[in-house]
Amino acid sequence: MQLEPIFISVFSIFCNRPRVTFAERLVYSKDLAFSSYGEYWKELRKISALHLLSGHRVESFRTIREEEANFMVDKIRECCSSASSAVNLSEIIFSFTNNVVCRVAMGRKFGEDEGAKKFSELIMEFMNLIGVFNVADYIPWFSVVNNFNGLNARVAKNSKEMDCFLENVLLGMANDSTNRVSLVRDNIKAVILDLFTAGTDTSAATLVWAMTELIKHPEIMKEVQTEIREITKGKFCITEDDLGQMHYLKMVIKEALRLHSPAPSLIPHESIQDTNLLGYDIPAQTRVFINQWAIANDPMLWDEPEEFRPKRFLNTSIDYQGKDFKFIPFGAGRRGCPGILFATPNMELPLANLLYHFNWSLPNGVTSKDVDFAEELGIILRKKSPLLLVPTPCGF
């Protein structure tokens, strides 16, 4: 049986999101990711695509990305002054994605001061709370438990601090007369919050996993570096013009997304009407979960799926646009992530720079067998422990 036509036909039926209590409190019940499907959601998606995520807009942010990539390289070079000193690559990568998003959304970044650290902690806590299991979403009368386990207090504190931060962000879109849906400050803050959370943590997590896999497989890292260095031919700086030729690099990112998708393994949806799927009667408002991890690790779809093999994407048209249902790290259908164009250069450019400017090794006493692949539970599946690597500058 051909399943893809069946799935396409029911996308519109399962395009709703189930109610998530903590998410509603943290994102004003008005954001794009968790809003119910309807006219408001459609308008919000249009605004996001028009103002932030269109191809033209993403291209306009190119200078920001290239500048931040160069800053990242300079920061690592400063850390190389002492021989064999390891750097916290997880922290450096998060700083890159965070700075890009801050400059795009606010026209400024926080730098390295205490404010930057506080903002990073604020985002991390937000993502943890969004992804935490809340038994009250399934058994409402258990909600009282959250008064004793501290979750209600944490949500209230994070919501207040995040709101204060967003109030300082320019909210010019609220006065856009072309919007069909009337938008107030909370609507725009919810859109900006989506950008900060989805645009920062997901790309950073993917890059950390990519570097983790490459340090575990040095032969693959060497092949990717050879490709990058042959294309750039000793240039001082990599530009986004160079990325189009880096096919192996793109395969590495695809494989990192397949094995370590930053999105939740179980993607929640909700039916908006009664339907029948593969002989099963499914009532309206039924919560269903798409197990994208199981799809990406299915031996019937992938040869040796547990292995990190970027070349499995060689000479294939498989990408992460949501058209190939065996590979959906950004989702698919109407609720697929609208930020793919924004995320792609945010992953490719920094990874190319890391592999071009430096050779990487593990700290003294650490072997490839010791590399930790444990995941931190939450809405974003980050690497639980920081990735500590030793960079060696290349003399270009």
From TrEMBL:
What the entry lists under InterPro entries is as follows: Cyt_P450 (IPR001128), Cyt_P450_CS (IPR017972), Cyt_P450_E_grp-I (IPR002401), Cyt_P450_sf (IPR036396)
Question: Where, by residue number, does heme bind?
Answer: 337
The record, for CDD domains, names: CYP71-like
List GO BP terms, alphabetically: secondary metabolite biosynthetic process
Q: Required cofactors, per record?
A: heme
Q: GO: which molecular function terms?
A: heme binding; iron ion binding; monooxygenase activity; oxidoreductase activity, acting on paired donors, with incorporation or reduction of molecular oxygen
User: PROSITE patterns from the xrefs?
Assistant: CYTOCHROME_P450
Write down the Pfam families for this protein, in alphabetical order.
p450
| The organism's place on the tree of life at top rank | Eukaryota
Q: Which UniProt keywords apply?
A: Heme, Iron, Metal-binding, Monooxygenase, Oxidoreductase
For this chain, the family text in UniProt reads: Belongs to the cytochrome P450 family.
Question: What is the official name of this protein in its record?
Answer: Cytochrome P450
Q: Which organism is it from?
A: Aquilegia coerulea
Organism lineage reads as: Eukaryota, Viridiplantae, Streptophyta, Embryophyta, Tracheophyta
